[in-house]
Amino acid sequence: MFNITGKTLVTLTTLTCSTSFMLFGYDQGVLSDIIGADNKFGQDFDHPDANTQGLIVSVYQLGNVGGSIAAFFLGDYWGRKKSIIYATLTMLIGAILQTASVNRPMMYAARVITGIGNGANTSTIPVWQAEISTAKERGKLVAIDSSLIIFGVFVAYWMDYGFALVSGSVQWRFPIAFQMVFIVVILVVITVLPESTLAA
Q1: Would you say 82 and 177 are in contact if contact means Cβ atoms under 8 Å apart?
Q2: Residue 186's domain is classified under what CATH number?
Q3: 109-122 tens-digit pLDDT
Q4: Which of 97, 141, 151, 165 could, after both became Cys, cross-link 110 (CB 3.0–4.6 A)?
Q5: Domain containing residue 69
Q6: Total domain count for the chain?
Q7: 48, 149, 60, 132: which is closest to 98 by C-alpha?
Q8: Cβ contacts of residue 71 below 8 Å, gap of 6+?
Q9: What digits encode the pLDDT tens for the residues 17-42?
């Protein structure tokens, strides 16, 4: 449908990949300042103790591991583009469920789902970009993507700080929901981009 080549292809691919890595960083950092026992998050989730807070955070990493393993087994079968789309849609479902969470089990499940999508995404994105990029650009572009993880964490910290001044559940729901901005950008841009010619 779209015949995008040359610098335009590399630019749009890099935009997609960079956004994915910013999303990864954002998700890593967003709970750091909104989770707690006595703030609004804590009140909404029955004042979780330190162990429960750690569990809420860490189940996301379990999902990441599961998503990476899934990408290993299914990535070549689906191809890079479909794998990224499916992974990003999984993250979207997880982000919606996290934002709408009303109890701990729902939050646990939502965190795992988001992690699965993210693990599959961050396992597939660098491969897709490397296969599309020229040998001369490959290392530089992957390095740019990796550095943007830190930018995603930076955005998450400032988002949390700003919403700490707001009352009500929006204090934690909006920062979690904001990851959907990155998700939508990825889904919109990747629709016009090609499958990797090296993918099975």
Answers
A1: no
A2: 1.20.1250.20
A3: 999 999 999 999 99
A4: 97
A5: 16-190
A6: 1
A7: 60
A8: 83, 87, 119, 120, 123, 124
A9: 999 999 999 999 999 889 987 889 99
